[in-house]
Amino acid sequence: MTALDEPLAAPAAPTGASAHGAGAAHHAVQRPNDRVAVYIWQAPVRITHWVTAICIVTLSLTGGYIADPFLIPPGGNVMTTIRLVHIITALTFLVSGVVRTVYLLAGNRFVRWTAFIPTNRTQFTELFRQAGFYGFVRSEIPKVLGHNQLAAAAYLALFALLLVETVTGFALDGLMGAEPGATAFAWLRELLGPQMLRLVHHLTMWLILAIALFHVYSCVLVDHIENVGVVTSMFTGYKFPTREEVVESRDGGPEVLEQAAKRADA
Fold first, then answer.
1. Integer Cα distance of 93 and 99 in angstroms
2. Where are the domains of the chain?
3. Are 74 and 64 in contact (CB under 8 A)?
4. At CA 190, angle to CA 177 and CA 52, rounded to 5?
5. What pLDDT, in 10s, does the model give residues 18-54?
6. What confidence score (pLDDT) does residue 91 get?
7. Is the domain 41-265 a CATH 1.10.10.10 member?
8. Nearby residues of 266 by Cβ (< 8 Å), 6 or more positions away
9. pTM for this entry
């Protein structure tokens, strides 16, 4: 048993305690307000999350420099090096995206596509209830262990923007004769033209950064309100809700408690 797997509950009855005492201790473990360690984010999801975050920052800085050199004069091998870093980072980001896409199909209930696309009325209305909370119209936050539906919608928009950024990026790289952009995305350059292609690429970057900024803000806010380890869960994979919160959450239920108990006993 590890510290991460151990539920935050009352200690077991001491050796020699009466049956009544042992039963009371067992009852204490089952109290609704006791916290349990629920495994939310699988390791590949956490890794791709941080790889993607680092790639977005690196690509934004190097892309901004390629478009308009700043701080360091672009003489000598500077621009060549910056372009190389930009392309290597883009390829790393692409691999990370492929791995995350696989887990949209093969991951647990918190990371599969069903956690992002509303499949029932509760998920659909949660989008507006969460927006009402952020807009100071509602005082209660919807109960959910993984992504709330508003965050999920933002992530879907982010996925689309990252796809646009990737395609336009390789198409722009093709202007230098580099493959696969030179051949695979020649049609896009002919459709939009180099200048429009650059404009779409740059505007998409700013939209991605705007969503990333809101993502950080909302994570810190919800982490403070829910106090279940929202931020740290992207490092450890675990959140620590109460038993009652697990049962009442839209993506929770008694089976989640059972899985947490089995993991704690392993």
1. 10
2. 41-265
3. no
4. 65
5. 444 444 444 445 687 889 999 999 999 999 999 999 9
6. 94
7. no
8. 1, 5
9. 0.80
- Identify the three-state secondary structure at position 154: helix
**Dihedral sign, Cα of residue 99, residue 105, residue 106, residue 109:** positive
Closest CA to 195 of 211, 172, 178, 174: 172
| Main-chain dihedrals φ then ψ at residue 197, nearest 5 degrees | -60, -45
3-state secondary structure of 242: strand
238: three-class secondary structure by DSSP: strand
Q: Which helix (H) or strand (E) holds 39?
A: strand 38-39
Classify strands 238-239 and 38-39 as parallel, antiparallel or unpaired: antiparallel
Q: Give exposure, 79-117, as e/b (b: 16+ Cβ within 10 Å).
A: eeebbebbbebbebbeebbeebeebbeebeebbeeebbe
C-alpha distances in Å from residue 73, one per residue of 65, 183, 198: 10, 31, 22
> Which of the residues in the chain have pLDDT under 50?
1-28
Residue 61, both tokens: 């800085």
Is the Cα dihedral 222, 224, 225, 226 positive or negative? positive
Residues facing 239 on adjacent strands: 38
Please say whether the beta carbons of 130 and 148 come within 8 A.
yes
Condensed to tens digits (0 to 9), the pLDDT of residues 91-120 reads: 999 999 999 999 999 999 999 999 999 888
Helix, strand, coil shares, percent, the chain, to 5: 65, 5, 30
